[in-house]
Design brief:
single chain; 303 residues; alpha+beta; eleven-stranded antiparallel β-sheet; 9 helices; elongated
Length: 303
């Protein structure tokens, strides 16, 4: 065993040093493999505009969906019967409501759906054409979430090291403009659609989509309806999510306990692997010192 250690101490020390560096620059969630939730615009892959959040509701619970607030600010919702629609959309859990606001003449349609089968899930770009609509425009919109509860402090920060994120958060959503034509060839319906996906990571087969839509004028600008959908979507986000905590790496967590304690802790972590890497030199140095001391003792006895 001693011979093995003497032969491979450099390799073992290098591996331990790599492990220490990885630990120092990882966050607690990465180390303990905690799941986390993001809001994003892409279903099949991660996008650069994803936002880290914490879910306040269980999207896979029918009871949670039924308990979703019908009154949101000045909006009041009424439920739709969704049994047949859930089957057509390939959804395991589905909530669909029409929300009205006395300040607007137009209701908005709100939908939350979750599926455990990716192959049977129908995203809007597939669903609307299947229902007879034509997609005439695609894009992205930024939803401004203005809520005091979205003011957040980073996780594991000490009182003297706190920073706060703005209470005005931006969430990205996909936008579709779809139309349905009459048998005569004219447009009989035009809709503005906003939606995003809720994804649990690192590994989950569940697919959740949140969608807001409203009827738009058959011709001309749809900006007023788009702004209406964005306003309503912004009002619903705090009902479902809290902003995700901004985690810092273990390196900064240790330093947050003070420059002396933090520095000593970090040096202690490096001590073992560096000692193993330079084991031969250390032992050689110790042997040289001992040899020198023994030589001095011998010379004294000779005198």
């Amino acid at each position: 065993m001693k011979r093995f250690f003497e032969e491979y101490h450099g390799i073992i020390g290098a591996l331990l040093l790599t492990f220490v560096i990885i630990i120092l620059f990882s966050t607690p969630s990465m180390i303990f493999a905690k799941s986390f939730t993001t809001i994003g615009t892409e279903l099949s892959h991660a996008s650069s505009d994803e936002t880290l959040v914490r879910s306040k509701i269980d999207f896979g619970s029918i009871e949670h969906m039924r308990a979703f607030p019908k009154e949101i600010g000045n909006w009041w919702g009424s439920d739709y019967e969704t049994k047949g629609l859930a089957k057509r959309l390939g959804a395991d859990v589905l909530l669909m409501r029409a929300y009205s606001n006395p300040d607007y003449y137009q209701p908005v349609f709100f939908l939350i759906m979750q599926s455990y089968n990716r192959s049977s899930f129908h995203p809007p770009i597939v669903c609307y054409p299947a229902l007879g609509y034509t997609i005439v425009e695609e894009g992205k919109e930024e939803i401004q979430v203005q809520d005091v509860n979205w003011e957040e402090e980073p996780l594991y920060s000490k009182p003297y090291n706190k920073t706060r994120l703005s209470s005005n958060r931006t969430i990205s959503a996909k936008k579709l403009i779809v139309v349905k034509e009459s048998p005569e060839g004219g447009i009989k319906e035009r809709r503005v659609v906003l939606y995003y996906y809720v994804k649990e990571k690192p590994i989950s087969n569940k697919i959740t989509m949140v969608r807001v839509s409203a009827l738009a004028p058959l011709e001309g600008s749809y900006d007023a309806i788009l702004n209406l959908c964005k306003e309503f979507m912004a009002d619903t986000i705090p009902c479902m999510f809290e902003p995700g905590r901004t985690e810092v790496s273990v390196f900064y967590i240790l330093l947050a306990y003070g420059p002396v304690i933090g520095t000593l802790s970090i040096l202690l972590l490096f001590t073992v692997p560096l000692t193993m890497i330079f084991y031969t030199r250390i032992m050689h140095h110790r042997s040289t010192i001992r040899y020198g001391q023994s030589s001095k003792i011998k010379r004294r006895y000779k005198k």
